[in-house]
Amino acid sequence: MALSLALTGCADRSSGQGNSTDNNVLSLGISSAPNSLDPAKTGSAFQWYVNLAYDPLIYRAADGALQPRLATSWSYIGSGSKVFEIKLRPDVKFSDGSPLTAEVLRENLTYFAGAPGGSAPYLKQIASVDIVDPLTVRLNLSAPNPNLPDIFSQYYLAGDLVSGQALRTPDILATETRGAGPYVLDLAETVPNDHYTYTPNPHYWNKGDVRYGKVVVKVLSNPNAALAAIKTGQVDVIAGDPTTADAAKTAGLQVFQTPQIMIGLDLVDRTGSMVPALGDVRVRQALNYAIDRDAMAKSLLGGFGMPTEQIALPGTDGYNEQVFYRYDPDKARQLLAEAGYPNGFTMSVMTQTTYGIDQISQAIAADLKKVGVQVELTNAADMTQFVQAIAAGKYPAYGFGYGYQPVFLMGPGLYLPSAGFFNPLKSTDPQLDALYSQAATADQASLGQVNKQIVGRLVELGWFVPAVFAPNLFFARSGVSGISISPNAPMANPVDFRPATS
What we know:
By secondary structure, this protein is α+β, with helices and mostly antiparallel strands. The chain contains 14 helices and 19 strands. The protein has helices spanning about 45-50, 100-115, 120-125, 150, 225-230, 240-250, 280-290, 295-300, 330-340, 355-370, 385-390, 405-415, 430-440, 445-460; strands spanning about 25-30, 60, 65-70, 70-75, 85-90, 125-135, 135-140, 185, 195-200, 215-220, 235-240, 255-265, 305, 345-350, 375-380, 395-405, 465-475, 480, 500.
C-alpha cells in the first residue's frame, strides 16, 4: 500500500491498443508493467491490471464502505475475532467456465497464504478452514484479526479468487487471467511491457457492470509526457503527479485527489545505540516540534498534499483530532536542553528519491538545523542500496513513505517488532503492545477507540517524524465518469469507470 500509481509517457505502437475517441474503448495509463498478473504474487501498485479480471470477495467502495461482491455476506462468529464465516454468491463462474465453490475458496486461501504477496502474512493466521456447505466456509484463526474484511477486499488482493482449474497449473497466472471479474486478458492483443488489452468475460455474473467493449492499460513513461498524452486523447485516465496537477486543471481535465502516502523520518535508533540522543523520548519529541509541516506541504506539494504529525488520516479510523506537535522551535530547544543536548547533536540520515521523499528529508534537515540538530543526508543511489542499508542497520534514521492502511493492519508493517524494514532494530513498547493486543480482540464498535489510542501512543513515543501526506492523484478526460476516491479508498478502480453519456 506504500506505492501510488505514477504516470509515464505514451506512444501508440499497435492497432490493438484502443483509442479514447471510441466510446466503447477505455484507455488507461500506468507507470510500469506488472511483475505478475497473478493476484497472489503481484502488489497493490498494479491493482488496475488485476481489478479488471478478478472480482474480490468483498468490495471497498469509493466512500470506504465494504460491499458484497463474490461474497454475499461475512461475519465473525462469537467474540475475539478468531472465527470468520464467508457465504459465497451462487452461480458464479470464472472466465474459464469453472464454478466458484467453497472448496475453490479453500484452495485459494492455501495458495495465497503460500505465495509472496502482501496478504500472505495475514492469511497464515488461518489455522483451518471448515466447509459448512457448498457455498459457505468458516475460517479458524490462530490469532485474532479484526480486519479480515479489509484483507479480502481488492486493496489487499487476497479476495481476488482464481479459478480452481488454474490453481492446478498456477504458472499460467503470471501472464494470463483466470478470474471471476468483468474482463479477461486478450493475449492476442497484448504486448507485455507495452500494453495489456482486456475484453468482456463471457461468464461474468453481473453483465450490467461491463461498461466497455475493450479496456487497454498502457505502460507509459514520464509524468509530463503522460499529461500530454491525455490532453491529446491518447488515453482517457491516468494516475497523476503533483508536479502536473495544476497543468491538468488548466487543461480542463478532471482532477481527483486524496492524501495517501505519509512521508517523513523514521527514527529507527530508538534506544540510542548509534546516536545516544535518539534514545531519549524528549529528543524525539523535540524533533517533531522543530519542523514546519504546513510550510512543507505548501511549498513542496502545493495544494495537493496535507501536513501531518500522525500516521492516521483525518476521517479514518484511529485519527486523533487534537494537535500534538505545533511548529514550535523554542519548545524543541527546551526539550533538547532538558535532555542534555543544549547545543544539539549530529545524526546521519539516508533518504531516497521516490515520491519526493528526498525533498521532504531536505526540508526537515533545514528545520532541524535551526534548533541545533545537524543532519548528514545521504541520498541512496537506488532502492536496492536503500533497502540494504536500512536492513543492515547502518543509519539511525531515514526518509520514508508509507501508504495509509487501517491502523491495526499497519502494525506488522510499520510499528510492531515484526515490522522488519520500518523497525529494523525491533523497538518495542509495553503500552503499545498491550493496545495492539486489545485491538486484536476488540469488537467493531470499540476498535476505533483503541486504534486512536495506538496512534496517540506512537505520536507520544516520537518513533517517527511524520511531515506530510502526499496525494494519490488521477486525471481523466470529460468522457469518463464513475471516478471517485477518498482516504479510505484511495485507488480509483477502472471497474467503476463508465462513459459519461451513459
